[in-house]
């Protein structure tokens, strides 16, 4: 998840995945803040399928974008490629991530772009808390 509070004129930018991405979008929608979903598929392909209603809501009133042509489905390469878009669209990035997660890639690219990077601390016993310790 990448982004900042809509009260300050900023936009929530996230990947529309399960977990923190969809929570960020839902939080923005609940507060009537702008949100952008960056997809690893064509904009007409619903992924993940469980977020179909969320994606429809974002498409109606906010923005869904992708660098892929309509009809293209997600591959591992596309998930990794979209991280540079997420990093570039945001002034700051906040992650909780495992060492090998896509969120770590976003954080690395955000740092390369001179963006602020923050990490959500988690339990030291949790595998999703290992990544942020490298920052």
Question: Could you walk me through the main structural features you see in this protein, from its secondary elements to its overall organization?
Answer:
Mean pLDDT is 86; it is low at 1-6. Helix 3 (76-89) packs parallel to helix 4. The strands form two sheets. The chain has a four-stranded mixed sheet with strand order 1-2-3-4, with helices on both faces. The protein is built from four helices and six strands. The chain starts with a strand and ends in a 16-residue tail after the last strand. 34% of the residues lie in helices and 15% in strands. A hairpin with an 8-residue loop joins strand 1 and strand 2 (12-14). The chain is globular, with a radius of gyration of 14 Å. The protein has 135 residues and is α/β, with parallel strands linked by helices.
Keywords:
135 residues; alpha/beta; two-stranded parallel sheet; 34% helix; disordered N terminus
Structural class: alpha/beta
C-alpha geometry: globular
Strand order of the largest sheet: 1-2-3-4
How large is the share of residues in beta strands? 5-15%
Q: Please compute the radius of gyration using only Cα atoms.
A: 14 Å
Termini separation: 17 Å
Q: Give the averaged pLDDT, no decimals.
A: 86
The major sheet is characterized as: 4 strands, mixed
**Residue windows where pLDDT falls under 50 for at least 5 positions:** 1-6
Order of H and E elements: EEHEHEHEHE
SS elements, strand count = 6
Helical amount among residues, as a percent range? Answer: 25-40%
Number of helices: 4
